[in-house]
Specification:
CATH architecture: Alpha-Beta Barrel
CATH superfamily: Metal-dependent hydrolases
Strand order of the largest sheet: 1-2-3-4-5-6-7-8
Distance between the termini: 33 Å
Helix content: 40-55%
Length: 350
């Protein structure tokens, strides 16, 4: 009889194309495998939930870009936190810096291995996990090949990217081949902030994630709108982390000042900008307090707000408490689950 992988081996082994099929066979065949099933009473879908594949974790450690929180992540910790916070399904994504700092060949390999690892977890825990696949950006042709593999072979729920790639934001023409393909596929694109070349170590003792990441999400939103990129690709469903970052604080500048002064005066109107803001999606990760979440709900329709936790950096329980405190029962159902299913319909069976 063929030897099966042990479950502890499955979670820690490096993933390659050679082992991928064997792992799937092991997952399906092993009677000893403990498979976590979603609680029928749990409805929340977490669209902002990080994981770390072994090869990705090793790669970021080697370049000094890892951190102890993600280094201590495990699939069991994810499942335990989901159960405590009433999350039925979490869509897995790699955290910043993804593979951006890696050389081309390493970026291609690590992105593929990470995506296959995430798919393994989704397959071995039916209904508990989805996948936002990582691309080997800034390498465009290689990223186009990974889009095809991730969406056609792995059947990922969408693509997970960063808000910047060093000195390039998402509205720059450099990324048009990526948007052309994802628009053709009517894909969902989840974005996560990262350090930009311009804005590292600006304030002594203040880490970029405290302020700059929120600002960078706003930069990318502004770049997409005022370059005309988001209007050109209406069939891409965009998700912005952390409630759009600093968007609620800067929205009035975009809606009033930007459209009434050169070079955008006469090219954009307040209604056009609000229309784009109203069609983007925003997750609740790190904005679950009453002031931040209520501000987001006043700027954009509740239909565009998706439940997110930023696990393992924050917990599902605290975000569930925050969402429940701000929204009434009908809106909670939308934020917790229904809004996500509109753009991630394959999660409907979870």
């Amino acid at each position: 009889m063929e030897t099966l992988f042990r479950w502890d081996e499955l979670l820690t082994m490096p993933v390659t194309r050679r082992t991928f099929g064997a792992v799937f066979a092991s997952v399906v065949a092993s009677p000893r495998l403990s498979v976590s099933q979603p609680n029928a009473a749990v409805q929340r879908i977490d669209v902002h939930h990080h994981m770390a594949s072994p090869s990705w974790l090793q790669a970021v450690k080697q370049i000094g870009a890892g951190d102890p929180v993600i280094a201590n992540w495990s699939v069991q910790k994810s499942l335990d936190d989901m159960d405590k916070g009433g999350v039925g399904t979490a869509v897995l994504s790699a955290n910043a810096p993804q593979v951006r700092p890696l050389a081309r060949d390493a970026a291609i390999r690590i992105a593929r291995e990470s995506n296959e690892y995430a798919k393994q977890l989704a397959t071995s825990h039916p209904g508990r996990f989805g996948v936002f696949a990582m691309l080997p950006l800034p390498y465009i042709d290689e990223s186009l090949r990974e889009i095809a593999y991730a969406l056609d072979t792995l059947h990922a729920e969408g693509i997970g990217i960063l808000t910047n790639y060093g000195d390039k934001w998402l509205g720059y023409p450099y990324f048009e081949p990526i948007w052309d393909e994802l628009h053709r596929r009517k894909a969902t694109v989840y974005t996560h902030p990262a350090d930009a070349n311009c804005c590292v170590n600006l304030v002594q003792g203040v880490q970029p994630y405290a302020i700059e990441w929120g600002a960078d999400t706003t930069r990318s939103i502004t770049s997409l709108i005022f370059s005309g990129t988001s209007q050109k690709y209406p069939d891409i469903s965009w998700i912005f982390s952390h409630g759009g970052g600093g968007l609620t604080a800067f929205a009035e500048r975009l809606l009033v000042q930007m459209v009434t002064t050169p070079p955008y005066q006469g090219r954009f109107t307040r209604e056009m900008i609000q229309g784009e803001l109203n069609r983007f999606h925003y997750d609740t990760a790190q904005v679950s307090m009453a002031g931040t979440l209520a501000a987001l709900a006043k700027l954009v329709p509740v239909s565009q707000i998706l439940y997110g936790t930023d696990f393992p950096y924050r917990t599902a329980a605290e975000h569930s408490k925050g969402v429940d405190a701000v929204f009434d029962q009908a809106d909670r159902q939308r934020v917790n689950r229904d809004n996500a299913l509109r753009i991630l319909p394959r999660l409907g069976g979870a």
